[in-house]
Amino acid sequence: MLEQRTKLHNLVLENRKRLVMSGVQEVDGFTETEVRLYTDMGQLTVKGKNLNVEQVNTETGELIMTGDLVEMLIYSEKTKRSPDNFITKLFR
Q1: Contact 76/42 with Cβ under 8 angstroms?
Q2: CATH of the domain at 77
Q3: How far apart are CA 73 and CA 65, in angstroms?
Q4: Cα(2)–Cα(59) distance, integer angstroms
Q5: How many domains does the chain have?
Q6: Domain contains 2
Q7: Residues 12-51: pLDDT tens digits?
Q8: 23: exposed, middle or buried (Cβ count in 10 Å: 0-12, 13-18, 19+)
Q9: For residue 88, what is the enclosing H or E element?
Q10: Has residue 1 been placed in a domain?
Q11: Cβ contacts of 79 within 8 Å, gap of 6 or more
């Protein structure tokens, strides 16, 4: 039987260069200036310079990200997209 993960979401930002977080469900996409991911608390967008996702484990919900400068953390209420949404958008 699979244990359901406790829904906790924490962020630790060290010197605006290293971000450690828990409660990560999925990384949606990333570039050097933006990382989009889904957490137990909704969608999170991290903006900065030279961002790099060093480690991600969706089973435990842990993620480590580094960069030259983390400039912005933006939450939204969006939840993980379902496959139906993607297919619906294709045929619009």
Answers
A1: yes
A2: 2.60.40.2000
A3: 13
A4: 11
A5: 1
A6: no
A7: 999 999 999 999 999 999 999 999 999 999 999 999 999 9
A8: buried
A9: helix 83-90
A10: no
A11: 38, 42, 43
Token pair in block for residue 70: 């983390």
Residue 12: the pLDDT is: 97
Q: Please name which of 71, 72, 90 lies closest in space to residue 81, comparing C-alpha atoms.
A: 90
What burial class does residue 84 get, using C-beta atoms within 10 Å of its C-beta: 0-12 exposed, 13-18 middle, 19+ buried? Answer: exposed
pTM of the model: 0.77
Sign of the torsion angle spanned by Cα atoms 45, 48, 54, 60: negative
Is residue 76 within 8 A of residue 43, CB to CB? The reply is yes
Q: Is residue 5 part of a domain?
A: no
